[in-house]
Amino acid sequence: MSYDRSVSAANHDLLAESVWSFQMPRVRFGAGAVEELGSQLRDLGVDDDATGLLVTDPTLADVGHAERVAEALAEADYDADRYDECEREPSVAAIDRCVEFVRDEAGEDGYDFYVGVGGGSVMDTAKATRAVVANGGEPLDYIAEPTGRGEAVTESGAPLVLLPTTAGTGSEISPLAILSVPSEETKEGISSHHVRADAAVLDPTLTTTLPAEQTAKTAMDALGHAIEGFTTHEFDSMLRPEDAADRPVYAGRTPVTELFSREAITLLSSNVRKAVHNGDDLAARTNMLRGALFGAIAGLTAGANLAHAMAYPVGNRYHTYHGETIGVLTPASTLGYNAASDPDRYAEIASLLGVETAGMSNRAAADAAKEQYVRLQQDLNVLPSGLAELAGIDEDDIGWLASRTVETQQRLLRCNPRPVTEADAYDVFEDALYNW
Ligand SMILES: [Fe+2]
Predict the structure, then answer these.
(1) DSSP string over 385-408
(2) Ligand 1 centroid from CA 145, angstroms
(3) What's the chain's average pLDDT?
(4) pTM value?
(5) 31-206 fold
(6) Which part of the chain is the Fe-containing alcohol dehydrogenase-like C-terminal domain (predicted)?
(7) 46 alpha carbon to ligand 1 midpoint, in Å?
(8) Ligand 1 geometric centre to CA of 307 (Å)
(9) Which CATH class, in words, describes the domain spanning 212-431?
């Protein structure tokens, strides 16, 4: 087949990508979905006499969500051990500990099924643990070189069901588990379609206990996925791998992700104020969870880009929450630096964010998108105004952050709609010191 589209690449034998695919866990969504967990496991072929592992953290045990999930398992006559020592933003050592727990309690082959209930950190712990148990070895074996050993995850392992308690990370459907590697001062992903959960059970009643500050932070992550997924490269501007198995999990935006990102931007931006200021508003919580799911289908299928690439070095050095870091970086990066790549698309983002764009030039509308986003953050009243307030970051710190972004985040930067040099990253970090 000939394909005469021009693609810039070192290897001129490769053709432009012409195939896209779409992979998702099975999804159940709605109030009361937790009580269908047993039915979900049976749909996945888990036998009556199976013993599983419930992965969670101490906070979720305290507010009763872990208990509710345990009861749903018991109602369905499933036995399950519990591991509730997940760490926030888990390190490779945290995964080692969970893997050791599994091998000690259930043997080398692990449990018959896994259930993770919590935020992104818990869900990533469950995903990474199952992957390591199924494939052997330790987490670093499956992290890309040079940080890890770059081995492929080839086995999915026993069925895994994830139940998110925040409307944010999208880990319940994403093909990766993000881990920190403290010795390298970086965050990396174990990335494979085999890492993805088999089912996601999204019940908005699990999210109503989340405090205002956490609600706002996780919402910024979700909105980041939606906007980044909407602006990342199209799949056919990537290169087609010689072997389809080598197609990256972040393969560019597709006709499917486009649909979900538009809806996600609207749902999240029009419900986040209500969810933050009145956490018991179940309709707003439902819309946020739906928006976060749709944003994840967009950004975590197509590929997140610049704000996420810049957020990992920040989070790793300063131990900031992922969502608030994304919120601080988005105006300067995704909505600032990247806007020149496609002003028409950015004008559409302005409109999706609720800006009345009639009569505006596309350039003016793109600028208005950034202003509208900053105004939204100000309205939430719990988010930092920039990198300076986030972690006391100043001009002296951003050289290191810029070099780490370019050195360690090519997985994300390859999807970015504008090329990013270290000097560009420096300028964007500088711009993000103060958003207001
Ligand atoms: Fe994220």
Answers:
(1) SSHHHHH---TTTHHHHHHHHHHH
(2) 22
(3) 94
(4) 0.94
(5) Rossmann fold (3.40.50)
(6) 254-432
(7) 31
(8) 9
(9) mainly alpha
